[in-house]
Automatic annotation (TrEMBL):
One of its GO terms (biological process) is response to lipid. PANTHER family: PHOSPHOENOLPYRUVATE CARBOXYKINASE (PTHR11561), PHOSPHOENOLPYRUVATE CARBOXYKINASE [GTP]-RELATED (PTHR11561:SF0). Belongs to the phosphoenolpyruvate carboxykinase [GTP] family. GO terms for cellular component: cytosol. This is phosphoenolpyruvate carboxykinase (GTP). CDD domains: PEPCK_GTP (cd00819).
Amino acid sequence: MGRIETTSVPEQLPVTFLKQARLAHSTKTAVEANLASLNVIHGDMDKLAPKVRNYVEENAMICQPSAIHICDGSETENTSLLKMLEKEGVIKPLSKYENCWLAKTDPADVARVESKTFISTPKKRDTIPTPKDGVKGTLGNWMSPEKLQNSLNDRFPGCMKGRTMYVIPFSMGPVGSPLSKIGVQCTDSAYVVASMRVMTRMGQKVLDTLGNGDFINALHSVGQPLPMAKPPVNNWPCNPEKTIVAHIPENNEICSFGSGYGGNSLLGKKCFALRLGSIIARDEGWLAEHMLILGITNPQGQKKYVAAAFPSACGKTNLAMMNPSLPGWKVECVGDDIAWMRFDDEGRLRAINPEAGFFGVAPGTSDSTNPNAMKTVRSNTIFTNVAETSDGGFFWEGMENEVDPNSKITSWLGEENWKAGGKPAAHPNSRFCTPAAQCPIMDPLWEDAKGVPIDAIIFGGRRPKGVPLVYEAFNWRHGVFMGAAMRSESTAAAEHKGKVIMHDPFAMRPFFGYNFGDYLKHWLSMEQKPNRHLPKIFHVNWFRKGDDNKFMWPGFGENVRVLDWICRRVNNDDCGKDSAIGIIPKTDAINLDGLTDSVDMDAIFNLPKDFWQQEVKEIRKYFDEQVNVDLPDEIDNQLNGLRERVKKM
Ligand code: GTP
Ligand code: SPV
Ligand code: MN
């Protein structure tokens, strides 16, 4: 503790992007005055390695918080922050459980904001493909360095006035693992600190490992200096009009302003592990993907690991912790959202989960759909925008049979004595933030520094029509094409309105750190190195709907039947047959033993020719308009191949 001792500002600080902007508008004396007035209320600036200290001082100079708190990650620190948040009315305890909390946000700040998420590089084409003339690009948002500098300069100076700036050293991946990477996030939100403590490994041990090494620079502000002109809604300060989530790959820097929610504010997750992560991965020859990782063991004791990419709110968390309905099968969870994967010296693709917690969709989660998640969230969990029950519990859509019928429900919007029929009790993107270690089925190797060997990669999405339950790629290239051609119904995870089928290649559309065409080339290049055991690639769809508009497949624990077929295909079992779109299960090859729901398997695997002709056209249009000249020839060939096969259907 103590005040920052600074007699002079070095002429040559390592200059982050933001600081260039700030220093251009500030005199050295003013900077010194700011620094000298800073009040360190927790931790010791003198003990920080020079690079970390510079970053903290720089952010403090710009944002002008009233105090600095360097997080040690301890239980004591966490408890006192939670108490403070409770006192401020940001969170309240859910007394039915141990150390569980409910936060309600300003209803204007409930999800990622893709339209305000930018990547800034000197050359636009490094970040996004050039769409065809007259077409608006949808594969990410680029901003010029000059414009970003102005935007940041318009927002960050003085943005933390009256607030404490927390310094969060965090590791993505187990602390000290050669596959892990370190970041330092400065934020003026204690809710973010408590959440980052769940989602990442954070605190003193990370600083010890980092030494004076390099790290990802992550700055976050809710964008509401004190005193606020108007009091915050739900004690949740945010600044939706001015929200911006900016990435500056050249500097390994993230600057996020105006939102306290999820991927906008927990900067280790999408900003670091996916957007900047995918760039680092390309440069270093590996893959950073929006994928769950699970281990699956068949009744004979044979175990495989699988990674699966589904778009936001399309079933990753549920699959990652599934409770298999087939007797003798076991699923174990390595991660539910992000996979960092690289080929090892033996040519096997190995994956780690860079996260330490789950930021999972609450609605739909129940003892019947995801009992392992329900067990995980009963302690040490922060819930956001769910409903509460009068007996101190949580509630959301899907839990109707699991609450005391005598208890009263208060909706996330504060509607007391809430009853089904009107607005939902919980926001559709309400979430639990819970430690992975508490999940009863964590894989024994989930924190293994080497990562787990991946046998199969699965793509999937919400496809109400035409797309079968499962099919397999003919080979790696075809699999990469399948990832590129992914489409899915939009969900509440971002600001999209209505249920439209959107292209979401690799489930990464909101998370690409660089030009999607180059990303495809990177994926294709995986095949070009010798002696690699390339995982087989599959596509699944749990969400096909019948004429009655109901899901045709029961999903959840029953999905093990599909994983069973996938595992057999990985073993080269002769249980598949060629179709126009890929390899599909032979008749009766999906084990339906004990399935109580009646499922029309013919309908679920039916491939309507007109649908697929339309699909080919739509993919063609998307590639032409959006990826344009950056589309690799191989992907073009793959689409032509599909078109020809569909013609012959
Ligand atoms: P993000 O955290 O946003 O990346 O989402 P996610 O991909 O982890 O999705 P999640 O597993 O949280 O599921 C989102 C919603 O889909 C929840 O409401 C689930 O109940 C529902 N869901 C998941 N799996 C299935 C399934 O097999 N069938 C059906 N019908 N719904 C499912
Ligand atoms: C997603 O949207 O894919 C999420 C939630 O996992 S968030 O952390 O908000 O990005
Ligand atoms: Mn996600």
